[in-house]
Design brief:
Layout (H helix, E strand, L loop, with lengths): L6 E5 L6 E5 L8 E3 L1 H5 L7 H23 L6 E13 L2 E14 L5 H14 L1 H5 L3 E8 L1
Parallel strand pairs: 5-6
Antiparallel strand pairs: 1-2, 2-3, 4-5
Helix pairs in contact: 2-3
GO molecular function, one term: peroxidase activity
EC number: 1.11.1.29
Pfam families: OsmC
Amino acid sequence: MTTRTATARYEGFGKEGKGRLDSPSGVLDATPYGFNTRFGDEKGTNPEELIAAAHAGCFTMALSFALAKAGFSEGSLETTAAVKLEQDGDGFTITHSDLTLKAEVPGISPEQFEALAAGAKANCPVSKLLNAEISLTHTLA
């Protein structure tokens, strides 16, 4: 079992509050977040961006391992995840994570690639965590 942690600190409340995120690895080091980084264009991050990064990374790694297990050792994968936050009554809900994959895997058939990518989408731990619709579009060079 692996456990990872992060800490969020928020000072003040609502739109006027300011937050920061920290992680033991140092990747997040007093990284600012708040209303204006989430809904505006202020420099910093937001939960949806972090979920998108986690989903893109998890899916891409899962597909990489599936390809290696199937005997492929050359190529590249690049995935963008677009996480959608939508109004839900008085609050908000993350409704979608749309994965867009560009792949280069010499020697793989489109059918085998499709099957491995679908398996990675369904089985990466972040996909399993999300209570949202997940789509996958891909191009195979």
